[in-house]
C-alpha cells in the first residue's frame, strides 16, 4: 500500500470539499477500495472517511418510499424493520451480500458508487426505479449506471441516500459465484404501478434491464410468461465460471424463480 493522507470529516460539507480534490477517494465501507490499495491497484493521495457523518446513515419511511442513507451497512438494511415490512426483497438481497464481515462493514452508497458489474444493490436500485440522492442533485436509476465501474457521479459528488419506491411485489434471486459470493447472475423482479421491471446483474459490463422479460411479465405476472421469453446470449460475459449461453439460461431460470418467489 502506498502512503496517503487520511481525513475523517464530521460534516457532509467538509467531505464534499475534500472530495473535490481529484487525487482524493471517498471511503465508505472500504470493501473494494482498501483491497485495491493493498494490491497497489489504487493509489489515492488522500482518503476521505465518511464514517463520522451521522446524517449519512439510517433508514426511514417517507410516504410510499423507503429512504436509506448512503453509509447504512448491509446488515442494517437486512435487519431493518421498515425495509423488511415494505420491501422484503431488498432486505433479503442485503442479507445475501458477501459474508457476515462484509455485511457488517459494507455500505449501500459505497456499493453503488463502485458499481461492480456483479454487485447486488444495483439490481435492486434499477428494478425498483430508485432515486440516488447526492449532495448536488437527484439521479434516476436509469441514468445512474453507465457501465463497468462507471456511474453518473461527477467529481466531488457524494451519495447521501437512496429512495426506493415500494413495489406491489418484488423478489431477488442470485446464483452465487461460490468463492466471491458475487452474482454469477442475479435477477431482481419488481411489479410496480407502471409495469414490471427486471434488472440483471453479473451478466456483462454492468447491471441492465431486460425489455423482453419486462414486457412479457407486465402482460402476465407469472413464471410461465418469463419461460416463454428467449434470452439472447450475445453481449453477456463469458469466463472460466460460465459461458455466455449458460448465463443467458440463468437469466431466464432465475427470472421465473424470482416471479414465483414474489407471488409467494
UniProtKB/TrEMBL annotation:
<dbReference type="GO" id="GO:0071949">
    <property type="term" value="F:FAD binding"/>
</dbReference>
<dbReference type="Pfam" id="PF00941">
    <property type="entry name" value="FAD_binding_5"/>
</dbReference>
<dbReference type="InterPro" id="IPR016167">
    <property type="entry name" value="FAD-bd_PCMH_sub1"/>
</dbReference>
<dbReference type="GO" id="GO:0016491">
    <property type="term" value="F:oxidoreductase activity"/>
</dbReference>
<keyword id="KW-0274">FAD</keyword>
<dbReference type="InterPro" id="IPR036318">
    <property type="entry name" value="FAD-bd_PCMH-like_sf"/>
</dbReference>
<feature type="domain" description="FAD-binding PCMH-type">
    <location>
        <begin position="1"/>
        <end position="169"/>
    </location>
</feature>
<dbReference type="InterPro" id="IPR051312">
    <property type="entry name" value="Diverse_Substr_Oxidored"/>
</dbReference>
<dbReference type="InterPro" id="IPR016166">
    <property type="entry name" value="FAD-bd_PCMH"/>
</dbReference>
<dbReference type="InterPro" id="IPR036683">
    <property type="entry name" value="CO_DH_flav_C_dom_sf"/>
</dbReference>
<keyword id="KW-0560">Oxidoreductase</keyword>
<dbReference type="InterPro" id="IPR016169">
    <property type="entry name" value="FAD-bd_PCMH_sub2"/>
</dbReference>
<protein>
    <submittedName>
        <fullName>Xanthine dehydrogenase family protein subunit M</fullName>
    </submittedName>
</protein>
<keyword id="KW-0285">Flavoprotein</keyword>
<dbReference type="InterPro" id="IPR002346">
    <property type="entry name" value="Mopterin_DH_FAD-bd"/>
</dbReference>
<dbReference type="InterPro" id="IPR005107">
    <property type="entry name" value="CO_DH_flav_C"/>
</dbReference>
